[in-house]
Amino acid sequence: MASSPQLVDTREEFLRKLKWLMFFRVVIITFLLGSTVLVHFKKTSTYLETYLLCLYGIIVCTYLLTLGYALFITHIKNLPLFAYFQIFFDLVFVTIIVYVTGGFESVFSFLYILSIINASILLYRRGGFIIASASSILYGACLDLEYYGLIPSISGNIPSVLYYKASDIFYTIAMNITGFYATAFLSSLLSEQTRRSKKELKEKEIDFKQLEALHNNIVQSINTGILTLNQNDEITSFNKAAQEITGYSIFEVLGKKFDRIFPPSKNNLQNNDQNTNQKRFLQRSELPFSRSDRIQIILGFSVSILRDTLGNKTGKIFTFRDVTRYREMEKQIKQIDRLAAVGQLAAGIAHEIRNPLTSLSGSIQVLQDELNLDNENCQLMNIALRESKRLNGLISDFLLFAHPGEVEKNKLNLTSLVEDTISLFLNGPECRKNIKVTKLITPNLFMEGNEKQISQVLWNVLKNGVQSQPQGGSIHIAAKIENREHPLSKSISLSRIKLSVKDKGCGIPQGIQEKIFDPFFTTKELGSGLGLAITYRIIENHGGEIIIHSKENEGTEVVIYFPLTS
Length: 566
Description:
Blueprint: H1 11-44, H2 50-72, H3 79-100, H4 110-147, H5 166-221, E1 225-229, E2 235-238, H6 240-246, H7 250-253, H8 258-261, H9 266-273, E3 285-290, E4 296-307, E5 313-322, H10 324-370, H11 375-402, E6 410-413, H12 414-426, E7 435-441, E8 446-449, H13 451-467, E9 473-486, E10 489-503, H14 531-541, E11 545-551, E12 555-563
Helix pairs in contact: 1-2, 1-3, 2-3, 3-4, 4-5, 10-11, 11-14, 12-13, 13-14
């Protein structure tokens, strides 16, 4: 026995089927009985015969019942039982129609079959066989009662069924009953197959939705930006990581041309298109990108062809990541390697120069004390001593850069050290009166370091800030604790001290920003080119990091990070 329909169809689906049943009932009754009335009128030119009045009553009752069904159907809780009720009343009306239109000779006996089909569609196999049984009982009872004279003829004449033999009557009843059950069997078989197919389709649809949800979760969860393009290079998808990396929301980019969001990549995209037929995955590229908040980053991306299940090209899929931090680390590593190579080479040379320079300076001092020199020769001797001292100081600075050596590190209150260094600098000869210094320093910032070297770092940075503003200006110094993202994992945060010195000077030209930490590189007439190189080495030896943000004619910000000590 088949399952109850409510186990298969939802209430909404069953309600929809019931409404279609009500609609077709009205249409069939109107068409069949209305056409019967018209045919009869053409023959007799009257609408008031008894059996026609019965047909009018059936039509009116059908309309009224259907209207009642429509009014109360939404309030019915047991819809299958309500469907049985409707179809059973349909059988009653069909039996009356058969009786009124000639009984044994009525052409409307096929209406039983329509009711059986409706029952099979709505109530499946059980409903189909129940209605087939009810149809058999009602049809057989109608013909038997008419044959035995238990019900009168509507027209008052001798019923036509009396002109046939009993065997003919029973044979007709048997054949119709067979037809009823055959219809119930076939229609319910088709209905059951439809139900199974529908159930399998729903299961596959659920599986597909689960697979689609899994796919979306994977795409949205990974920390790599993913976007897809259609054949017109319009963005069709943009995952969560892509939104975080670019700063654009999905609503800002969907449907937009790729070149509008990634303008620098136009040539790359055109060049890659030439190889789309030869390669499944296109070459990896990098491009500068301006986020929605105007922050400049570097994107590393790769492109592959997006194909459908038949292998036809439907667009492209881009995967990309923010590699700005990695490129900065590469630059720092190259800088360290370059400085190490230069330091190792030059340190030995500096030692070899320093020894004879010391001897030369000592010899000049002895000669100056023992010889009687006139003013001109004495002045020349002083110049030689002064320049030898300057050269010795330059070598000392270089050796400090090349081999800083191990220095004693203690727990420092960086706040106090910065305050003291600023105070000394403001009262020293290297600070001009037309320079305004402001500060915003968090109290009690502690770190492990060498007080003299950290003070020297801040002194060098302040001196550069003053020298970049010969006509006067301002310097702002700030120090605070900052949590920064770990370069290799977003789930790890690093607490560091951020010390920044910002001026409004001439700035550093873009072309030389990568060289400012190189030893002996300077743009000043009397500069040695070792100040920032030594600063870089000291910060490096303290486990820190220095970053310079500068725009020509706008100013420079030097940001220094030191490990925080509790």
